[in-house]
């Protein structure tokens, strides 16, 4: 079966599928898969089979076709096809509740070099990762992923993605609500504070700032009561983002300054990085170059202090999506840098390098 005939049969299957003749559509697509020699056509029909089995709830079959699609993408040697197939693999594992595998495949998607499909599929990757974190009850990372997916949806006017993210946020809210009920029953103040912070972050991500502010106030009250200074930093960071959304930049800077003092007291470099990054954006929008430069310098000092940079190329780790490798000595490098360097010992400490671990 050649390219033109393959395309015609894929379209025929889509017409059958859209008219609710699912089994007939599957038969047409399976015939294409058996007889077509066109790799691009085979890739497309595998995508149709993945989607159909997902909607039918046949998740093991969905996974089977996603694995075949990965092999086809590798034969095509096309980064766009590879990204799409890894996303389907992540979704398949998400449906099967293999959440650790889902996160791993999503990270692989994010680590692929820049592609044309990246802007379109990046939001779906973030959504799938958020659902996996939610399945593992890692609430903060789940919310961060959902917020990233929402930004993709807004930037690309993708109403369907926005709808799916809002559905996931609804599930997230229900799960946090259940955790709050348990916290209240057992008088667990730290868990109550965490749930209030999650509620506030959810309302902020939805743009409901009027509801977010009181939640942040309640979370801050408990965090102060129990002496959780890092929790107070997280609350103030959320408050600052709310003020930024309201264009009240001076109030945002006030919250950031209080958070920076607390972050420096506890020595939390990651929080300091986030705060300096937020400050950069504010000072850039205000056109205050001297303050902007000061925060850029401090940001890079924090990066160096935490060793969040590649020891070979010197580029900061995390500024772009790149695959990393950790050597047995715990030093971390870009995978591409180690491959091009060709040395069998760590470039930093010169220890002999055994089989590295991916991170």
TrEMBL record:
InterPro entries: Postsynaptic, Postsynaptic_CS, RAPsyn, Rapsyn_myristoylation/link_N, TPR-like_helical_dom_sf, TPR_rpt, Znf_RING, Znf_RING/FYVE/PHD. GO terms for cellular component: cytoplasm; neuromuscular junction; plasma membrane. The gene is RAPSN. Belongs to the RAPsyn family. GO terms for molecular function: acetylcholine receptor binding; protein-membrane adaptor activity; zinc ion binding. The keyword Zinc applies. Pfam families: Rapsyn_N, zf-RING_2. It comes from Prolemur simus (Greater bamboo lemur). GO terms for biological process: positive regulation of neuromuscular synaptic transmission; synaptic transmission, cholinergic. Keywords: Coiled coil, Metal-binding, Repeat, TPR repeat, Zinc, Zinc-finger. Residues 310-350 form the RING-type domain. This is Receptor associated protein of the synapse.
């Amino acid at each position: 079966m050649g390219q033109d005939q393959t395309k015609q049969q894929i379209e025929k299957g889509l017409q059958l599928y859209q008219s609710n003749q699912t089994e007939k559509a599957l038969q047409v697509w399976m015939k294409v898969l058996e007889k077509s020699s066109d790799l691009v056509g085979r890739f497309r029909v595998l995508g149709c089979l993945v989607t159909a089995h997902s909607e039918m709830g046949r998740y093991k079959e969905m996974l089977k076709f996603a694995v075949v699609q990965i092999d086809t993408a590798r034969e095509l040697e096309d980064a766009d096809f590879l990204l799409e197939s890894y996303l389907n693999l992540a979704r398949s594992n998400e449906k099967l509740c293999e959440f650790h595998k889902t996160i791993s495949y999503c990270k692989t998607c994010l680590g692929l070099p820049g592609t044309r499909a990246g802007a379109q599929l990046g939001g779906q990757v973030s959504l799938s990762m958020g659902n996996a974190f939610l399945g593992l009850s890692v609430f903060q990372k789940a919310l961060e992923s959902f917020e990233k997916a929402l930004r993709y949806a807004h930037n690309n006017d993708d109403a369907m993605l926005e709808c799916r993210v809002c559905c996931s946020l609804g599930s997230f809210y229900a799960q946090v609500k259940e955790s709050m009920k348990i916290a209240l029953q057992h008088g667990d103040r730290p868990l109550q504070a965490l749930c209030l912070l999650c509620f506030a972050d959810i309302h902020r991500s939805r743009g409901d700032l009027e509801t977010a502010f009181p939640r942040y106030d309640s979370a801050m009250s408990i965090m102060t009561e129990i002496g959780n200074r890092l929790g107070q930093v997280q609350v103030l960071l959320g408050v600052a983002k709310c003020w930024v959304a309201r264009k009240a930049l001076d109030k945002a800077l006030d919250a950031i300054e209080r958070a920076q003092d607390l972050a420096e007291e506890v020595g939390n470099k990651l929080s300091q990085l986030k705060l300096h990054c937020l400050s950069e954006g504010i000072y850039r929008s205000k056109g205050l170059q001297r303050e902007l430069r000061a925060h850029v310098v401090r940001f890079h000092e924090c990066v160096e202090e935490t060793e969040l940079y590649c020891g070979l190329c010197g580029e900061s780790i995390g500024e772009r999506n790149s695959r990393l490798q950790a050597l047995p000595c715990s030093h971390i490098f870009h995978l591409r840098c180690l491959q091009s360097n060709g040395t069998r010992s760590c470039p930093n400490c010169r220890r002999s390098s055994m089989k590295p671990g991916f991170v």
